[in-house]
Design a protein that fits this description.
The chain is of the alpha/beta class. The protein contains 4 helices and 7 strands. The chain has helices spanning about 15-25, 30-40, 75-85, 105-110, and strands at about 10, 50, 65-70, 95, 115, 120-125, 130. The strands form 3 sheets. It has a 3-stranded parallel beta sheet with strand order 2-1-3. The protein has a two-stranded parallel sheet with strand order 4-7. The two termini are about 35 Å apart. The model is unreliable at about 130-150 (pLDDT under 50).
Length: about 150
Amino acid sequence: MSMAVYIPIYYASPLAKRCMAVYHKYINSMNERIHNQFANSNPFDFKHISALKSIENFNDVGPSVVMASSSGLQSGLSRQLFEIWCSNKKNACVIPGYVVEGTLAKPIINEPKEVTLMNGLTAQHAGPLHIFLSSCRFCTDKYVPKGAHAT
């Protein structure tokens, strides 16, 4: 008999949070399928996904999934978590799109042995730093053309 494992999932994006508020407010403007779902429960209230406002609100014990912007890892929660987690081989950084020259994401797609942190120090990593997702169904391309989106 297998036991269910609970791994919390968070989204950390001010834009996503604002979008969710709009979806909640304008549920009556949605199509019939959404209206039918809404009769039972709000389809935009995700049972297993929570909003994460800041690193201070994050209880970093055990495994978790955090979807955070910016994908370039330049600042914000995505950068803070990357710097905390990058040296542990159990962690991965999923980059769901193209990377821009001059961002932290650009060099990590080549899996360097160390990265420069925001405080100027370097951190060594113990394993793969990233999983790079392309816009197609199979993650075979290391680089994705500009304008691609993860699906």
